[in-house]
């Protein structure tokens, strides 16, 4: 059974650049985009992005994350998503 997860992920400012903050699972792609945009406007955050990921939670198999939209400053290398 494949499920699609939608996530908003903020990036916080650090001395070394930016680091991922706490991700929030959202009910839809549109909601993830809206939440990421709002996160990007928070003063502590450098930026945020919305992504989706398909997978089977029972088997633990997930596809690579697909960036839906990004706002502000996010890292170039997002392989860990």
Helix coverage percent of residues? 10-25%
Helix/sheet category: mainly beta
Strand content: over 45%
Distance between the termini: 21 Å
Number of domains: 1
Major sheet size, sense and barrel closure: 6 strands, antiparallel
The number of distinct helices, counting runs of at least 4 residues, comes to: 1
- Detail the poorly predicted runs: none
DSSP strand count: 6
Please tell me the overall pLDDT. 91
Shape: globular
From the alpha carbons, calculate the radius of gyration and give it in angstroms. 13 Å
What is the H/E string?
A: EEEHEEE
Structural summary, described in words:
By secondary structure, the chain is mainly β. The protein has one domain. The protein is built from one helix and six strands; from the N terminus they run βββαβββ. Strands 1, 2, 3, 4, 5 and 6 form a six-stranded antiparallel β-sheet that branches.
